[in-house]
Amino acid sequence: MKPAQIQSQLQRVLSEAISGLRDPRVPMIVTVERVQVAPDYTLARVYVSAMGADMPELLDALTHARGHLQREVAAQVKMRRTPTLEFRSAADSPL
């Protein structure tokens, strides 16, 4: 599968999984702006944004939920190895 296909699948799965989190630090609507996968697929940078959210707190909550989110990815995206998720603010995203 091409990196672009993997990235769009990860974006879809993570958007769904993040909306299901029950953490008070995660607002109702969190947008997964884009996902950037390393060439060897060991790391996936997930760029998120949320209106009026405390970004450091949101990133901390997502990092805390990383294990759960990686299990969701492993269950729904067919890859040989599930990449480690790294959460970043979309505002810091290089284009």
From TrEMBL:
Q: Which GO terms describe its biological process?
A: maturation of SSU-rRNA
The name of this protein is Ribosome-binding factor A
Q: Which GO terms describe its molecular function?
A: ribosomal small subunit binding
Query: Could you tell me where this protein is found in the cell?
Result: Cytoplasm
Record note on quaternary structure = Monomer. Binds 30S ribosomal subunits, but not 50S ribosomal subunits or 70S ribosomes.
Q: Name one GO cellular component term.
A: cytosol
Q: Name one Pfam family in it.
A: RBFA
Q: Indicate the family of this protein.
A: Belongs to the RbfA family.
Q: Which InterPro entries match?
A: KH_dom-like_a/b, RbfA, RbfA_dom_sf
Q: What does this protein do?
A: One of several proteins that assist in the late maturation steps of the functional core of the 30S ribosomal subunit. Associates with free 30S ribosomal subunits (but not with 30S subunits that are part of 70S ribosomes or polysomes). Required for efficient processing of 16S rRNA. May interact with the 5'-terminal helix region of 16S rRNA.
Task: Indicate the principal place this protein occupies in or around the cell.
Answer: cytoplasm
Keyword entries, A-Z: Cytoplasm, Ribosome biogenesis
Has keyword Transport?
Answer: no
